[in-house]
Amino acid sequence: MVNIAFNRFYKHTELSEVLHEFVKAYPKLASIESIGKSYEGRELWVVTVTNQETGPAADKPAFWIDANIHATELAGSTAVLYQLNHLLTHYGIDAEISHLLDTRAFYLCPRVNPDGAEWAMADKPKFIRSSTRPYPYDEPAPEGLVPEDIDGDGRILMMRIKDANGQWKKHEDEPRLLVRREPTEFGGEYYRVVPEGRYPGYDGLNLNVSKVREGLDLNRNFPVGWRQEYQQVGAGDFPTSEPEVRACVQFLTSHRNICGGIFFHTWSGVLLRPFDDKPDSDMSPEDLWVYQMIGKEGQLCTGYPAISVYHEFRYHPKQVITGTQDWLFSEQGCFSWVVEIWCPMREAGISGYQYIDWFRDHPVTDDLKLLKWSDEALHGKGYVDWYAYDHPDLGQVELGGWDRFYAFSNPAPHLLEKEVAKFPKWLNYQALLSPKLSVHSTHVTALSEDTWQIKLCVENQGYLPTYVSENALTRKLSRGVIAHLSGDISFVQGKSRQEGPELKGRSHIHTSASFWPATTATPDRHVFEWVVVGKAGSICDLVAEHDKAGRVRVQMTLI
What we know:
With 559 residues, the protein is α+β, with helices and mostly antiparallel strands. It has helices at 12-25, 75-90, 95-103, 114-120, 243-254, 285-302, 309-312, 324-330, 344-347, 355-360, 364-377, 404-409, 413-420, 424-432, 470-474; strands spanning 30-37, 43-49, 62-67, 105-109, 146-147, 158-162, 168-170, 178-180, 191-195, 197-198, 258-266, 270-273, 306-308, 335-341, 383-391, 395-402, 437-446, 451-460, 482-487, 490-493, 497-499, 525-533, 539-546, 550-557.
């Protein structure tokens, strides 16, 4: 076993060591490769997990999991490490996991954005959205406040400054808490609030927060729905312009056996499904039904609501966003989800809120609940009582308020393992839904002394059809099962390589009360046939394969 802790975050060097330790400890189940390098030159690691004794990963349906594309969202990396540890330590003990790794494969990328994560974990942290590459301009931003840890305590809090025309005031019963000034209120003690940071050249009047020099959002750099900066902030110079995104896209498109994927983010405590930019009415009903089924299972396993990005998680009612999850489904035909780990609101007992809308407006009672929860569950570390600070640029200010990184961006260390332990059951469930090609039977019939009829019957033992989704079928991303026959033979009827149809799974089956008649009871099977000439006793090799459903091999003797 690997000595790993799930109550803290690992920097890149240590994370690399841990991943290699897993591979060393479980050489028959795990292997590791670098799929590219980050902007600053750090390796982007992917660990492949499968039972190599039952065949290589490339011959099996596979499931992709990645995390930490956004710099501060470190809990995602912990969730991937937890899944890796869960799979490896339960193989041979848990029947479902043993079957899973015997028949499927996982590709796990715990940190897509190692550069941004290093900044977030630095002794004096800097919080950015994603990559550390300057964007859209390689020059300092115009003069303004630069958020940073100015007092060296490892936190970036808020600063409040007294101002007669300020927008904030102290809560009358809980003076630590700042609340919005009422629309018609006047004559009180008010404050202006800005992030903790330096303000070189402050003119005593304008408190402008400088635009972050590193303005990329790697999750907006994927090919699907890519738009320029004026339409989608942080999108990059062109689709896959960033090395981290290009490496992921290259890996995912070159591994055609991938049938689904999970992308771990933080925070909101929800399971997000496509579409990002279109309503459910634009999705094929068959795909929507599968998504709804997976979502129900996800809610049971994790306690997180399963919702549509377009309908329930838009940043603004007039705007749409796009990212990895939508790209993997919309353009690659694989069922995919974004998991937003961690929900402080839910932890604090707040209910009935509308995810993104809650940040724009909510009752002050919610803030009081959050503050009480921070005092109790986070031992007071989530919300810092205001304290005086002699600012080198602004003079006397107060530092304090929410430590957003500690309370919101990720679960606190002592709550981290409990949160990420919610996911393996659902991840494994999704991986097991994939199509799975299998040999049902083989037959050799002698037609004469040296002429033989050969039959190979293959079937899809998985839940999903071999093409995975209707979207993939529409986009012609998949082809039928391919069968190869070789040996010391010549062909009389049938070519050595034949292409058969796509095979159904069980996802199309209605209830027993359904009035729709079945057209066939075996849409999951197909029989390949050949007539060949060869000597009795000759051995023939048969291979059946499907890009998504895997590859199977069998030998037959002409007798």
